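WARN retry 2 of 3 for item q-0093 after timeout on previous attempt; input resubmitted unchanged.
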Amino acid sequence: MNATQILDEIREANLGYLMLAQSLIRADRAQALERLGISEQVASRIEALTATQLSKLASSNTLLAHCQMGDETVFELITQHAKPVTAAGAVRPTV
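OK item q-0093 returned
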């Protein structure tokens, strides 16, 4: 993958993230703040962006979304979905 392709992928990911964030904020602001890990001020700014502004912001060479894997609660929620199951159907404890 060359640099142009990488920048195109970042732009696409950013646009998708911003559109999703704007939609979540408009649907349920409190839940959006928690799920996105953003402040009230950032939510207000994202919500107010026009389509043109979304596009310009998405064109940044920096990935705007961030993974919250450092948050122990999020990590636990993710790993609980992949717990191995025994033949009897019981969930095997994970280490």
